[in-house]
Amino acid sequence: MATLPPDWTPAPAALKGRTVLITGATGGLGRASALACAEAGATVILLGRKVSALEKLYDEIEALGGPAPAIYPLNLEGATPADYEELAATVEREFGGLDGLVHAAAHFAGLQPLREFKPEEWMRVLQVNLNGPFLLTQALLPLLQQSADASVVFVQDDPARGSKSFWGAYGVAKAALGALAGILHDETDSSSVRITTLLPPPMRTALRRMAYFGENTLERPEPAEFAAAMVYLLGAEGAAARGQVLDLRTTH
Predict the structure, then answer these.
(1) CATH code at 187?
(2) How far apart are CA 6 and CA 11, in angstroms?
(3) Residue 206 in this model has a pLDDT that exceeds 70
(4) How many domains does the chain fold into?
(5) Pfam families from the xrefs (predicted)?
(6) Do 23 and 139 meet the contact criterion of CB atoms below 8 Å apart?
């Protein structure tokens, strides 16, 4: 486990000159990370399902006055390997390279026993939370390897909680995602691509409300409080956390 250096804050141009693609860009942590990366000088590619939400975020980032962002609408539930290859070709054509990839997209079907899990929903959860990150990383890896310093960040959930009753396909996918990150790290450890995982504490998100509907989610911190950690992992200083899980739970 790695920890964020005490009182660390991003420098104004910490990600200047870097191009970063963020999945789930209009979700809680994805949106906060996109804004933080843009403020740190990155060119941000916003990937998500809903064009209207992507356009709204695009306008917010453009108003910051930094590099113009880009939007790439894609529904991970139905995306095929060909779709990811087309995405990679578009990124190469439009941006000439890629320096960062953030897997912030998530799909949660709610708490339910395995015996009641519908097969279609099981496949949908695994597609978004596990197959999508693998296929997207595989498609973009050649571009990332061309960067002098590239970073792939997986967003994890509490592994102790995810293996408990009723977490179903989401818990399985997150456990497998940890294994995926470990294998990728082993295979890229001598390259310019570093693999890290971000483990935030419980946040004020829609997923949290679905899982803990009796909880006052307003008591949880906003995802924006943890966006600086994403900038850290994507920037040069994040090399210190290479191959590790950056655990933010100790600060909350």
Answers:
(1) 3.40.50.720
(2) 15
(3) no
(4) 1
(5) adh_short
(6) no
